[in-house]
Amino acid sequence: RAIVEDKKGQLWLGLDGGGIDLYNRKTDDFTHFKNDPKNTNTISSDIIMSVLVDKEGCLWIGTYGEGLNKFDPTTKNVERFHTNAKDPNALSNDIVWKIFENNDNTIWVGTRGGGLSIFDKKTKKFKPYTYNVNDKFSLNSDKVLSILKDKSGLIWIGTENNGLNKYDVQS
User: Fold this and answer.
1) pTM of this prediction?
2) Fewer CB within 10 Å, N side or C side of the chain?
């Protein structure tokens, strides 16, 4: 369902029910990473929707219904992020469709039903951006499927059934 290449040229594959596979092209070997319900230092789900390798080499894993995971391939540590109705700085929805890293040290998380959650790596807090019928500058849908930054620095956010949003980071 998702694939990304890391700085070493290895491929990380996000599988639909199979967790994460790491393919080493030099050795032609696979390493498997799966959820273990008894171990919180494993990925939170085996249903993977999206993967991203950030500038530091960490793998961000979006799941279907079990939130966002940050996996450090060096230490093998997993950090899990979930929705929490009591915490306004938590992930906005546990179905993560798209993950994008911006130049300002933030991770943008497109969710199915919670709009966009922007994670600040320094503060470890999320800021939600959602659809608001009374705000013409809000997202046009809370179902974010895709995120792209173009050459001019504009960020484009694609949504399910409601089209495209343009976000100018400078304004």
Assistant:
1) 0.95
2) C
